[in-house]
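help with these tokens:
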Amino acid sequence: MKSLIKKIISPLVIKCFHYLWWQSTGTWPKNTYLGYEILQCPLDLQLYQEIIFREKPEFILQTGVCGGGSIVYFSSILDMMNASTDTKVIGIDIELSEQAKTIKNDRVLLLEGSSTDQEIFKTVTKLIEGKKGLIILDSDHSKDHVYEELSMYNKLVALGCRLVVEDTNLNGNPVYPAFGPGPFEAVCDFLSENDKFIPDDNLWKRNLFSFHQYGWLKRIK
């Protein structure tokens, strides 16, 4: 009976909690980090902290900056680790918010423009040339845009490093069922065509759920 409950009831409870927590305007949408808006699930921030400390990336690149909280979070972890000043946190946003523009940290580089703009991509490629790092896709969440990002930025991921596609929980997975094809569907298409990456599901499943479930990718070839 216990095994039956664990197999059938537990996933349903987790999915319902995930949906209800995401839907609540009084939970994660109000989170801040050092005063900066950070639209992240705390469980995912825990995973990012572990990855950064364990794998010591030589750069962190995030498309989609919003209020800048994630950028500040990543840079402060690197600061506490006494990472080299050459280890940069690069943020790209089509229009940087006024709050993001106030970030004061020498390791932070913010670029304004579309993440899929070829000139932006060339600039980023030059900045991280020869380095191993962590790449996070969190800009426009439409399937076509995320797939285009994946097609471009996967080329910058070194062997053994990670590419994280955020908000794969959209489009009924299990939240916002009316969203339409988004990050999760883009990841599925990408993985069906690319055997160099695998989803590192064991990473997030110990916390039972993630806003980016099935989007924690790792390059293996």
Notes: Residues 49 and 77 are 7 Å apart (CA to CA).
